């Protein structure tokens, strides 16, 4: 076998194959990267997107481009992850921009802010409405390039020890909630606090805090909040469609061959789609189990939603006046959102509305 | 340059490079396929998914795997496309299963049937809920393998010359509508008819037909129906989330190297996501223009929706009793749908509901 190929190579012209070699080496180089997820392995759906992404990149390049995913804390913790990819400690990370709202609130707009849009609308804004170009123009200042990498869908509004019906019920309420959403709740009289995920349960149990938000049924179930704060409110109006990005060091990104760049983009699309699909597939049964375990579902009242919407818009006006980056991205998001809901209220919303009503009427025939 | 490489190849050992050659040839073979879309170029969003898919496959394989897209009719027309991919006339096609409902109604379930689910729920069913495995087990009888390749989102209910308020208004109504939806409308007293897209306008103008459905604002606008049948009904309850597949000849699929299979899957995911995002981004402005041109938006009445839902379920029961393939896929879809809406009615739906109401209240602030 070996000898036959040697002869064949000679017969067909050694020069041609020798010239081709460098081109192959250039277009499919062997690359090893590390990907630090900002999520712990316990958030298996979110962390799993990094595993899916890495698997696709490896399989589509015959193992030449290998990306090793790490959970939050294995290389760097979530709070340091953006710095780590900015300064080249890791080649890439996976997480939502709003984790870094303390650096600049514009980073929250990349992920989600109160009363913005739903998952499909955000995908349309990023991929067709110019949003992803705006994001990458902006994040260049952090020395990174980003690719959309999944969305949890609308989250829940969190677990409350007592019912919350009016604005009065929010006064002084110690609520575990972060970022811009925390600022909105503070304007309404609540006291936003920050506690690591593992400390929430005992704090709710002892009454050190009155309420806490996490993700949605599938992730919330694991933490057992229903036992100590049974009122489970919806919707999480501050997270209608929290989008997660893959963030890649800018020089590392630019040095990739074109084929690897395209592979990274479509691998991220597929991993992102799968992330949302997993939540959508897993949340219903988790919700059933939570209700069986004592969770009491409650919608936020119109009074609370209206006050929160007003407070959110005041914060956006404030930030827009002070921060041109924020204003540029917010204006794009807001006008896109308003057009989107003009259309979604017609076909999409009325279809879902009928399916929900007929489900109730026919007990889910 | 050439000479230096010749020397280098000799110095490093010709045998090694000659042995490596077959491995490279196996893992990255040069392949040329033809992709027949079932859509004309005038449906640029739907047809465009084939162009996006082909571009990604080429770019991610450094041009080694080339797929040339053709519009409907360039090689085969839409009605013959499934046969063409089954018998190897073309390597692949792009289109919705319901085009071939005449062969077997199970093919409609792959795409969409009346009162089923929304886009995210269908993605979750296919990718996480076992739906795509069920589909591929089933379509093996047509000698094909399929990959999900996009969704238009909920379509509109069509253009009507007169208002339709009650079931009485549907009696004898000549409605251009196909497939299972036509059977549902027939049960309600309408007369479903089939007319090619280009003949709809004159038929509506002359009153040869009373109503016609097409897609949604972006595609409908081009055909100018608002001038001759101004009542624009919603939602298209027979197409809550019409899903389009890429269909590949089974032997052709199985002969692909693993890396090309994975590339095809993620290229289809990205092209499909972009297809939906384009409709979502383009429909709002088209809807505005249609209303400005005289379209009058009307929701289907509860009476009509309830009768259509009942008729649909009767048809599903009928088909399930006669057709085990239909029953198997329908049972999976129905139980998945009912679980999905249990969850979607909580966070997703109430978020959209508030955003729609606040948009109206604040004139889209």
What would your notes on this structure say?
Chains A, B: This is TRAP-type mannitol/chloroaromatic compound transport system substrate-binding protein. Chains A, B: It holds the Pfam family DctP. Chains A, B: InterPro entries: DctP_fam, SBP_TakP-like, TakP/all3028, TRAP_DctP_sf. The structure is a homodimer of 365-residue chains. Chain A has 365 residues and is of the alpha/beta class. Chain A has a domain of 164 residues: D-Maltodextrin-Binding Protein, domain 2. Chain A is 53% helix and 14% strand. Chain A contains 15 helices and eleven strands. The first copy, chain A, has a six-stranded mixed beta sheet. Chain A has a five-stranded mixed beta sheet with strand order 2-1-3-10-4, sandwiched between helices. In chain A, helix 3 links the parallel strand 1 and strand 2. In chain A, helix 8 crosses helix 13. The longest helix of chain A has 35 residues. The N and C termini of chain A lie far apart (64 Å). The interface between A and B is large, with 97 and 98 residues.
Query: How would you sum up the global shape of chain A?
Result: globular
- Subunit arrangement of the protein: homodimer
CATH class group of the domain at 30-152 and 241-281 in chain A: Alpha Beta
The CATH architecture assignment of the domain at 30-152 and 241-281 in chain A turns out to be 3-Layer(aba) Sandwich
For the secondary structure, the number of strands of chain A is 11
Structural class of the helices, strands and pairings of chain A? alpha/beta
Strand content of chain A: 5-15%
Rg of chain A (CA only): 24 Å
- Please trace the helix and strand order of chain A, writing H or E for each element: HHEHEHEHHHEEEHEHEHEEHHEHHH
